[in-house]
Amino acid sequence: MDLLNTLWLSTGLANFESGQVIMMLVGSGLLYLAIAKNFEPLLLVPIGFGAILTNIPIAGFTEAGGLLHYVYDVGIATGVFPLIIFMGVGAMTDFGALIANPKMLLLGAAAQFGIFATLFGAIALNAVPGIEFSIQDASAIAIIGGADGPTAIFLASKLAPELLGAIAVAAYSYMALVPIIQPPIMRALTTEKERKIEMVQLRHVTKIEKVVFPLAVLLLTIFFLPTATPLVGLFCFGNLMRESGVVERLSSTSQNELINIVTIFLGLGVGSKLSADKFLNVETLGILALGAIAFSIGTATGVIMAKIMNKLSKDPINPLIGAAGVSAVPMAARVANKIGLEANPHNFLLMHAMGPNVAGVLGSAVAAGILLALVG
Known about the structure:
mainly alpha
């Protein structure tokens, strides 16, 4: 009888808690969004599966000696995985559109307003019973507004590791929902006439300009905001490998094999933080709500800045490209192009929108550096 009782107690059925079941359903929901709806599948599949693994009773995936425990400690707690991904993103990024039209930096900067607005919102949430966000917690939550998953994970691992799961899921969920969240905001803030605006064709950018650009960005970061150099430095290194043309194998590896391997473990590591005891609380709901607000504000301020620039600029600027200032590359640029084509079938905004889009990547990294410098 004792043997049967011991055997029963070693099964999952005897040890499941309601919170674990709920979180496994959450993980299954993330898998559904990734597989059925194609929402950021490269990240939501490993995150969702990691959430299921970490909530299996007795298995010990996240305990000392467990696989996910070491994946998290080695790659995420240290900030290594997000930095490697930033290097791969840099290797995949073409700064040509931004170099051809440097004014687009203003749109990338304007879209980061959502980050700093959300910082105060997170602090204000402390008035809600059950929520106690420190200034470090609020800073880590605020970066969700940049719609940059690796940056959000990097900053959360430094400032609020206990909130990493909720912050990462919010960041990647809203990145995946760009085609749903942004269009209503873009249409509400622009007129039909503004959406039809056709922009002047971009000038040709030389190879020398493309090689010098990442070096110049890194130099400016070193001088004025060294706390942002981990992110900006790896991003610029990846981009230099791409544009130099002499290390195609290294650039290709960064863009493909390396970033894919790290993405698998990053997703599993983030999913390991979606355990019931850490995720099922009122603070998580607050983070998810703030993430939506942050992303919406970033989109809106980008569009508004583009409208202002259109009034002051000699060449016409379609305000839709301002929404691409959030750093969800290249999805936000594709959304701007899609809305522009709906208003004017001859209006191709993709290359123009890539300018503020890649500026948004730099902007979110700089914002993270500012927050680290202030409260890290």
